[in-house]
Amino acid sequence: MKTNFLKTFALAFLIMPTIFANAQSKLDKQVLMTIGDQDITVKEFCDVYYKNNLKSDVIEKKSVDDYLELFTTFRMKVMEAERLQLDTSAKFQKELAGYRKQLAKPFMSSDDITDALLQEAYQRKLKDIRASHILIRCDKNALPSDTLRAYNKAMDIRKKALAKGADFGALADQYSDDPSAKGMPATDQRPATPPNHGDLGYFSVFDMVYPFETGAYNTKEGEISMPVRSDFGYHIIKVQSVTDAMGTIQAAHIFLQLPFDASEEDVAAMQSKADNIYKELMAQNGNNWNEMVKQYTDDKGTIARNGALSNFTVSRIVPEFIEVCKSLDINEIGQPIRTNYGFHIIKLLGKSGVGTFEQESKGLAERIEKDMRSKKSEEVVLKQVKSEYKFKQNDKNLEAFMATIDSSILRKAYKPAAEVDLNATLFTLEGNPTKASDFVDYIKANMTPQRYVTPATYAYQLYESFANETVMNYADAHLEDKYPEFKALVQEYRDGILLFDLMDREVWDKAVKDTLGLQEFHARNASKYMWDERAYATIITVTRPESLPKVKALLDQGVELDSLRSAIQRDSINYAFVRRGYYQRGDNQYVDQTEWKVGVRNEIPSSVDQSTVIVCIRELRQPEQKTLKEARGLVTSDYQVELEQKWVQSLKERYPVTINEKALDKVRKMYQ
């Protein structure tokens, strides 16, 4: 008997959640209300109510009945916008498409890859790297044979660099295809730049193209990388140093400029001058820094800032300068150093360092989204999408099409050959065919002149882009079907845009432009717009003590207050400022501290500096009505409220509301 009872209880325990789920499902499908000819289900209302009242951090949460009224008004306004066909305008469609594109991004990326990229970027941001490289140029679209030739050349140079006693800078001078290694002659647009011998200086995350950045951060200090492929070619990277990141740097300098063609005697003389300036600075522990900047620096643009440069990061200034900054404490002055531009005496003013992951993650995520590394996430998603939507390529038809491609495609002059079957299916998505004619249209719209590839190679590159774009566009078009939360989000933005446009048309803009209506509303409600008692006062602020007696003398002489500003200028009284106007209680602290009586003059000295405020009461006015001009902002706002109320009443007549009280009562109980 006991066993049977336990079995029965256990069975009931298992069945109850199913019963409750079925009951909730039935309630969700019930019509809660009808607005005009539109039925609103319990689920539709509850989803919005939960999101805006229970899930969100609203200050004042609405009861079910209060929110039902807001929801009903909102739905009526959206229905009215649809009746007026505001959702068909080109402006609306463009705006909604822009929002949808932004909303879709999280649904079209791989969270795992994005999180990994974020962690990777943060770890790299913690370190500054100084590196040199040798570039073997190779076009990103180069033929396989040319690519192999460039790679083999890079490997041969790497062997030379690894040899005992090898000079990496000399090898860069000899072999690198990066023109900065050997220096660049002057042009009309820029001066000559001296050779850097492959030294790229300091950099951090996002300062270099992603493959190069990865190659550098994956190479230990003092070591030389394997050839790293980028769009520019193959890089052989030597990491000179890896140090803690400085972040944003604030520094000042005294700069002694050297001409590029300076003689050895010129250099020696400038070195001596820099050393002597440094000795004078050290003799006074740097307290004479500002005076020395004014007296000696050749960087005239920084004199007014005591030599301070604009804030910079390690990749924005020559590495010799950064080396000194990294060696200094805050407010410490470094010994003179020479760069390609001259001699610098550097004072470190500050550095931001790197924040916590939580502090940095938002900015890093935004940079990742714009950086080529975001393609890693796209590649993962593309693979998933192809599998999900059953991408199937027809290799036979594709090969037949590619066999017709000739060199005209490299000249941006491609036209399909006569034998091309434009109806041939190249691939399918869920059985839906994409035909050769679609690819032909894509080629015509996207081909560009090419130099380093064969017609077939370029055609396959275009095909890969075409297929990937088609797949992703197909997935994008099905986002609403796949993700109900995305569909609800887009619908929310759609309704919000419609509501804004409609409110602007029927209420906000209408109230501003309806001059006669505004005047009539003000006349009907003039008693609402009143001035309290007001004082007309002149306020004179004197910021220097030596000017105060002169201002008081003018007042004692009976200078008309209207002429006071002119008298102050005439007598060359500095640091005295005059303003006047009508003030209510609470408008101005100095007027509030003064007795409101015509002719009263009050001096109020500051408790924190040497300034004094003088208040002169000239006139008192009793409470009176504000003119429309004086109250226009408030009147316009109140008129908009009245217009909206009348308009909503007309909507209620156009879209009558019927409530299912039984269903509503069940909803109330759900949220008690």
What does it look like?
The protein has 672 residues and is of the alpha+beta class. Helices cover 50% and strands 17% of the residues. It is built from 24 helices and 19 strands. The strands form six sheets. A four-stranded antiparallel β-sheet has the order 4-3-6-5, with helices on both faces. A hairpin with a 6-residue loop joins strand 16 and strand 17 (612-621). Helix 3 (64-83) packs across helix 18 (484-513) and helix 4 packs antiparallel against helix 18. The longest helix has 30 residues, at 484-513. The relative contact order is 0.09. Mean pLDDT is 90; it is low at 8-20.
Short description:
The chain is α+β, with helices and mostly antiparallel strands. It has 24 helices and 19 strands.
